[in-house]
Automatic annotation (TrEMBL), chain A:
Keywords: Membrane, Transmembrane, Transmembrane helix. Residues 1-20 are annotated as: Disordered. The chain crosses the membrane at residues 39-57, 69-90, 130-149. It comes from Streptomyces spiralis. It comes from the Bacteria. This is Uncharacterized protein.
UniProtKB/TrEMBL annotation, chain B:
This is Uncharacterized protein. It comes from the Bacteria.
Length: 206, 108
């Protein structure tokens, strides 16, 4: 690679003013990026906190009601959401505060240039942080959505054995003192209470 | 070398002398530096040469100092003296001794 430097075009005062503005913009760049990262961090943090709080309050009791294997899917979505959220938070924090590591002392390049390189890194952190946080939100919403609209776990059924050897299974049991009525698959079936031998709960009807 | 007063000034010799004496150092990420002595005040300066400067998040505007050609060939860089030394008469927000010139940098 070869580099050659030649005299450029003639310049006037407005070109000089533009060059000076450019130098000023370079010096102001890093604080501007850090400030933007700060705003994003606060905004996205608030959004996430609200979402996480909301989903945690509604969380475990509702997840229990969802039919397998959807409860596992919800668990995985929450895990991925947590991971992307933590990663996004790290990148946003890095964008605001700088990466948590020391940098080799560079005496060759000017402070402006070093700050510009830092600003580029911070800008990359900021972009990735925003993307990761949005992904985290998407996974969280998917998890909450699956909890709400996923297939509900079947309620336990009642299994009734009678002295006649009949087996009834269903739910919605009612009684009037003489007969026990059960909602079974074929329809409502009643048996005299005196015939009832065993009543037990089962996960599923045979 | 006595301290020359701050004065925004352009002379053709500045560009010619700078073209002879400045070196161009690539630093990666669209960033480079020009190193050399200011042709007017003689102080050593290091001038950042960048592809773009962040100004606001929406929208991301590009370099204000002239159009940026596709990387890897010819670019014109307007340079102002950015020396750290005192020059009498310099105002807040001004840099160096006030000298400015333009360089054409060809990389291949
Ligand atoms: Zn000087
Ligand atoms: Zn100078």
């Amino acid at each position: 690679m070869s580099i050659s430097i030649r005299p450029g075009r003639p310049m006037d005062a407005s070109d000089a003013a533009r060059a000076r503005e450019h130098q000023q913009a370079l010096r102001a760049e890093l604080p501007l990026v850090r400030e933007a990262a700060h705003s994003w961090r606060i905004g996205l943090g608030g959004l996430l906190l609200a979402l996480v709080g909301f989903s945690l309050i509604r969380g475990p009791s509702e997840v229990d009601k969802v039919e397998p294997p959807w409860n596992v899917v919800i668990g995985c979505l929450l895990l991925v959401s947590l991971a992307t959220g933590a990663y996004g938070a790290y990148r946003l924090l890095s964008a605001h505060n700088g990466r948590p590591r020391t940098r080799p002392v560079d005496r060759r390049t000017s402070a402006s240039t070093q700050n510009h390189l830092l600003a580029l890194t911070a800008l990359k952190d900021l972009r990735h942080g925003i993307i990761a946080t949005f992904l985290c939100t998407v996974f969280l919403v998917a998890a909450v959505g699956t909890t709400w609209y996923g297939p509900e776990k079947a309620k336990p059924k009642l299994l009734v054995r009678t002295t006649t050897g009949a087996v009834l299974c269903g739910d919605g049991a009612t009684g009037d003192g003489r007969r026990l009525t059960l909602k079974t698959k074929p329809g409502r079936v009643g048996v005299p209470l005196s015939d009832v031998l065993v009543v037990e709960t089962v996960e599923k009807c045979p | 070398m006595s301290l020359v007063p701050y004065k925004e000034i352009h002379q053709n010799e500045y560009a010619e002398e700078a073209a002879q004496r400045f070196t161009f150092i690539r630093l990666g990420s669209g960033t480079a530096e020009l190193h050399g002595p200011c042709p007017r005040c003689g102080h050593a300066i290091r001038v950042p040469v960048v592809d773009g400067v962040y100004k606001t998040f929406w929208p991301r505007r590009r370099n204000s100092a002239g159009p940026t050609p596709p990387s890897g060939n010819v670019r014109t860089e307007d340079v102002i003296c950015t020396c750290q030394e005192e020059h009498p008469g310099r105002q807040e927000g001004q840099f160096g001794c006030g000298a400015f010139w333009s360089l054409e940098i060809t990389t291949s």
